[in-house]
Structures are given as structure tokens and as C-alpha cells.
């Protein structure tokens, strides 16, 4: 589907170009460093967004709250390089494709803890509570040289709420379409305990519930087409209970200890002939000790554990349970060799364990890894080199690396170039599922080259990145073996444009992406698009305050895509517009309102699965300013 037939996407792209040209002309003398934010995901060390050689994006708490997004999926959809597929609304399976890579080719962290199901390989984005999220860091491109398996398309790290200063109380209460109701409360803060010791804490709890929509429209004929069910026209609800606990101590200027825990439980109803409802649990627990031995050396020791569990039912009859647990530990040392020269050395340990009534052939495996990274600055030049070796109980060793370079010139401009390799370990379902698993599978692997150019002013940033990725040994069903096998290949090429600015009092955040994903495996599907990836996506957010009032708009546009590898089932492109407003009627009180999908656009991101039409929501918030 071309942009000529795609009016909102065209408008978004034009707005981005207009914003960039206007701001470049109007802000020639602005301070180029004013919009820098600190990120840690791109390098496992603290760097500013503009200093990072990888394309990064930060969504902070203010932006999350302004967006009035009802879920993490709503917050992420349409952003640069991201395609989201959802199977029936809130709480239903949501898979994320970053730069066209597979949905299990993105590494997801919560407060530094690796999360995701070891059986399916997927992270449950739909179950992560947006009300408890403080910020999201998105890193695009391969990062296996620092994190190991999964980071082919990129890394998304989610940080839960952080509190500093005097202890304060907060709460929110909301309602909306489809019987949606939600609420939450929290308290947190920090203070000095003694001359040499200070501490902080935070506690938040939230509830989200919806009666839902009819998740699957079905196909009528043949029986079980689409969602493997016909004739279920009931509403498919979702309920989520979330709790987070954080705390830390800082002793003097050299020692800091902190811990965090996020626990989510819930119930999900959906359409199915074998399973139609589930009880779910998502949990991430972690702790970190940091010792700043000197101005030149930092040592960090981290431990974490993630649980991903689902008890499945058909009606009230139990019909399978799956639980995976990932325990991890890491030791990392950072040496400042000289001004602008940082060396990082580290060790990672990971163990996956499965607990299920399905008799898997193997139920645990371990992974050990060593990594090194060098970051150097030489005048206007920046250099990053990283190398990692993973040793896995199942497939043996895997070595990955990254080399990246950047050059700043003409005060405001920067160009970057990089090359990186990455891999994805086979899942327990692919390896050990009874009568289906193939323990001889090799990891999926990739090679990526990319280049970018960026301009930064006081209130404006523009960045354009292009990439090309070859993925080998993709795992797919092999009819000759009646088992999964490393038989697929893919080529991914694309470009991403991002603009952030302030224009005539409006805060503008926009992005546009172009993707060419191609199946390169021999056979009848050679040359086809990979399923569920739109060739074009765009997102534009506009916000402005008018005294105690604030008005905002979010437009998302996505081109057409195919739902199957044969490219026989096409999903049409679509565009949606959300309108939102808020009124601060007292110092600490805000009333928010939103109408999503204002024009009631009907669309699908996964064939046969309905998406909500026009929706409304109201939210009352109490949050003292810090």
C-alpha cells in the first residue's frame, strides 16, 4: 500500500519534514546538549542519548502519563522500527517486531532482569502494567555482544517507578469503554538516615479490568479457521493485579545497594476450542550492589529471577499448565582508563527451568558468558567495540561482536556507522516438546550493518538511520523431518526517521519507518514478505498546555501486510487518531479524558482477530509535584 493511498501517514511524514526544516532555520544558535537524557541499555553503562552510537529512544514518565495509553502495547505501537500484532484487544497476546526481526528476536528487561517465556520465547508485553512503569528505553539493532541471546532486532528495557525526596502518596482511578475500570495507589520517597547513609523506597499496587470485546471474528468456514474456533461470540475479558516494591541504600559515596520486585497476576478470557481462559503470573525480582572503588573503577554485582506462568482451562476444566523460571547473575567492572576511555569487563550466568504437565524431554539448561567492551572518544570521533562469548549447555559456544563509530561535526551534526552480529537460542518448545522438539537445532544468527545521521538543537532533534540485516538458520517446520529445523533465511532492510521538537508552543514527537522484509529461504515462499510486518509505519504526537488545560493528539498509520508466509492473506493498511485532554483543577489533582480511534476505524493486525473500535476513557489522578 503506497503513501499516496495512505493520507495520515503522508501527513505525518510531511509534518516531520516541516518540523525539521523550520527548527533548523529557527534555532541555529541553540545549545546542542539541552535535550540529552541518560540511558544505560545501549552500552550497559550510563551514556547520554546523543552520545549513544546505537539508535535509542526514551519514553519517560511524563510522556507515558501524557499519552494516556491504556497498555504498554498502545504506548509502543507505530514507533520507529516497531510493528505490533495484537490478538483481540486489552490483555490478549501481543507480539512485537523490531526492525522486521522475529517476535522473539527482541530482548526484554525489567529493571535489568531478563524476562520472557523459555517455552515460547516470547515476552508477555500485554501483562506488563503501564501504571507502574517509570520509563522505557528502546535500543534498535543487534546487542548480543553485550546481552547474549535474543537481541537481534533490539533491546527494550522497562524501569518501574522511582522515588526521591520527601515521601509522597499518589493514586489514580479510571473508567472507560467495554466495562473498563482501573485504579492504583502508591507511596515512595527518600531521605538521609545518618550522615553517611541515605535510603529510598517505593510501593505501588494497581488493578485493571475490562469486559473486553469478542476477540475472534472467526471465518465461519472451514471449521476452526482463523482462531481455531467458530461460533464463540462472547466478550473476552481481562483482569490484572500488579504490585511493585523498590528500595535502596547509599552508604557514603562508594556503596549503593538496591532491590526491586514486580509481581503481576491475572485472568484472561479468549476464544478457543481447546483452551479459552487462563490464569497468568509474571514476576521479576532483582538486586544490585554497586561499589565505586575509586574515580576510575566501578564494580556492579546483580542477581535476578523471572517467572512466566500460565494455567490454562477450557471452561472450568484444567487443560495444561506452563511455567518457566529464569535465574540470572552478573558481575561487571568498568575502568576509566583515561579521560573519555572506558573499558568494561563482565561475566553473565543464566539458568532456564521448565515446570509443566507436558513431559518435556529436558527441563533445564544453563548459559555462561564473558564479555568485554571498549568505549573511546578522540576529539569528534567516538568508538565502541564489544565482544562476547556464550557457552550454553544445549548448543555449545556462540561468539558475537559489535563495532561502532561516530563523528560529530559542524557543532550540531553527527554521523554513525556500525556492524554487529547476534543470535537467538532455540526455545524449549522447539528443542524438547514431546514428539515435536529437535535437540539438534542450532541458534538463529544475524549480521547487521547500519548508518545514521543526526542533528540536534536546543529544542529539536532529528535522526535518520538505515540498516540491512541478514538472518540465517531461522527455525521453521521441516516437512522432510516432521520436526522444526534450521532451514529459513531472511533479509531485512529499512530506514527510520525520528523528530522531537517544540514548535509554536506545541511539543512534537514523530517517527516514520520503511521496511523491506524478504523471505530468502529456497522454495515457493522465496522473495515473499515476512508476515505481520507493515512496510510503512508512522506515529505523530502533538501536545500543548493552555494554562491548567492540556490538549494532545496521537496519530498512528501503518501500511498493509501479509498474515502468512505464503502472502496469500493480506491485511489492509489503516490509520487511527486519538484525541486527549487533561485539566489540572488543583495543584496535585488532574482529570484526564481520551477518545481513542476517533473515526472508529476497523482494522486487524493479526488475521481474524478483532481490534477495539472507538473507545473513551476517564482518569482522575492525585500526584504531588516533586
UniProtKB/TrEMBL annotation:
<dbReference type="InterPro" id="IPR012910">
    <property type="entry name" value="Plug_dom"/>
</dbReference>
<keyword id="KW-0813">Transport</keyword>
<feature type="domain" description="TonB-dependent receptor plug">
    <location>
        <begin position="53"/>
        <end position="155"/>
    </location>
</feature>
<keyword id="KW-0675">Receptor</keyword>
<feature type="signal peptide">
    <location>
        <begin position="1"/>
        <end position="28"/>
    </location>
</feature>
<feature type="domain" description="TonB-dependent receptor-like beta-barrel">
    <location>
        <begin position="260"/>
        <end position="598"/>
    </location>
</feature>
<keyword id="KW-0626">Porin</keyword>
<keyword id="KW-0798">TonB box</keyword>
<dbReference type="InterPro" id="IPR037066">
    <property type="entry name" value="Plug_dom_sf"/>
</dbReference>
<dbReference type="InterPro" id="IPR010101">
    <property type="entry name" value="B12_transptr_BtuB"/>
</dbReference>
<dbReference type="Pfam" id="PF00593">
    <property type="entry name" value="TonB_dep_Rec_b-barrel"/>
</dbReference>
<keyword id="KW-1134">Transmembrane beta strand</keyword>
<dbReference type="InterPro" id="IPR039426">
    <property type="entry name" value="TonB-dep_rcpt-like"/>
</dbReference>
<comment type="similarity">
    <text>Belongs to the TonB-dependent receptor family.</text>
</comment>
<protein>
    <submittedName>
        <fullName>TonB-dependent vitamin B12 receptor</fullName>
    </submittedName>
</protein>
<dbReference type="Pfam" id="PF07715">
    <property type="entry name" value="Plug"/>
</dbReference>
<keyword id="KW-0472">Membrane</keyword>
<keyword id="KW-0998">Cell outer membrane</keyword>
<dbReference type="InterPro" id="IPR000531">
    <property type="entry name" value="Beta-barrel_TonB"/>
</dbReference>
<dbReference type="InterPro" id="IPR036942">
    <property type="entry name" value="Beta-barrel_TonB_sf"/>
</dbReference>
<keyword id="KW-0812">Transmembrane</keyword>
<keyword id="KW-0732">Signal</keyword>
<keyword id="KW-0406">Ion transport</keyword>
